[in-house]
């Protein structure tokens, strides 16, 4: 007898979420994504004794306050991520529409945008207050630390590295690739919860993780309703821009 959740998601899963990759592919995806980045670093270290420019870059990257080096590392992360997505799309002979890159109505997207942002602000703040009450020592107002180096540098580099690039990469991976596979296996609700929890944990800071968990749930909802990750990318960009403004105003 099939489990009840398999019956439910098999019957109700939208066709565009019926992706060819599996849960097993997700583990391989993560290993490849981080493995490529590690290999690149190892390659650079191997070249550094013979190529002065590479040695100079590695010295700069070891300094957490070097904005340009931090920006290059962000680009390496993005290239590795998109490279692995491209590998799976080619493996299963599907196009970028399989990870949510589809056309969508502008007016319908704008209608969802307003409601999503309002709901996000209310729910995320209520959740942060609730956790602050239930968990002693939890600081809902802890400053975001991970991106301060880039935010403090060149405005152009910061906008690309913090506002424009991460939403494109993260929506493709977390909503288009990860959420779809999880939804196919365990249904849309659990797929959204698990992928959003991973999305939150990936930000490595308790209050930001809760904040991005709620954002992830809403972006999954937008993806299901609009059948495209493009509107979610713009919501994500707006969120990151507001965070960038908060970082640079301190």
Keywords:
250 residues; disordered N terminus
Tell me what you see in this structure.
The structure is a single chain. With 250 residues, this protein is mainly α. The chain is 75% helix and 0% strand. The model is unreliable at 1-9 (pLDDT under 50).
**Based on helices, strands and strand pairing, what is the structural class?**
mainly alpha
**Envelope shape:** globular
Name the helicity range.
over 70%
Strand portion, in percent?
Answer: under 5%
The main β sheet shows up as: none
Separation of termini? 58 Å
- Taking all residues together, what is the mean pLDDT? 84
Quick gist of this model?
This protein has 250 residues and is mainly alpha-helical.
Topology, pairings included?
Elements lengths: L3 H9 L10 H25 L4 H10 L5 H25 L14 H29 L13 H4 L3 H32 L1 H14 L4 H21 L3 H19 L2
Helix pairs in contact: 1-7, 2-4, 3-4, 4-7, 5-9, 7-8, 7-9, 7-10, 8-9, 9-10
């Amino acid at each position: 007898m099939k489990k009840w959740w398999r019956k439910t998601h098999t019957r109700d899963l939208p066709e565009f979420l019926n992706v060819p990759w599996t849960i097993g592919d997700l583990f391989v995806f993560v290993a490849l994504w981080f493995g490529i980045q590690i290999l690149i670093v190892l390659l650079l270290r191997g070249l550094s004794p013979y190529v002065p420019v590479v040695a100079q870059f590695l010295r700069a990257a070891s300094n957490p306050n070097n904005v340009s080096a931090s920006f290059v590392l962000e680009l390496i992360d993005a290239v590795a991520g998109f490279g692995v997505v491209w590998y799976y799309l080619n493996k299963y002979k599907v196009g970028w529409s399989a990870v949510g890159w589809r056309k969508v109505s502008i007016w319908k997207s704008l209608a969802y945008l307003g409601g999503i942002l309002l709901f996000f602000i209310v729910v995320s703040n209520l959740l942060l207050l609730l956790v602050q009450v239930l968990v002693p020592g939890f600081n809902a107002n802890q400053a975001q630390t991970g991106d301060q180096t880039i935010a403090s540098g060149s405005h152009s580099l910061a906008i690309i590295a913090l506002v424009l690039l991460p939403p494109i990469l993260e929506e493709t991976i977390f909503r288009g690739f990860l959420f779809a596979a999880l939804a196919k296996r365990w249904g849309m609700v659990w797929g959204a919860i698990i992928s959003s929890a991973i999305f939150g944990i990936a930000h490595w800071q308790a209050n930001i993780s809760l904040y991005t968990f709620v954002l992830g749930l809403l972006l999954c909802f937008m993806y299901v309703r609009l059948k495209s990750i493009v509107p979610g990318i713009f919501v994500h960009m707006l969120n990151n821009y507001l965070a960038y403004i908060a970082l640079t105003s301190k």
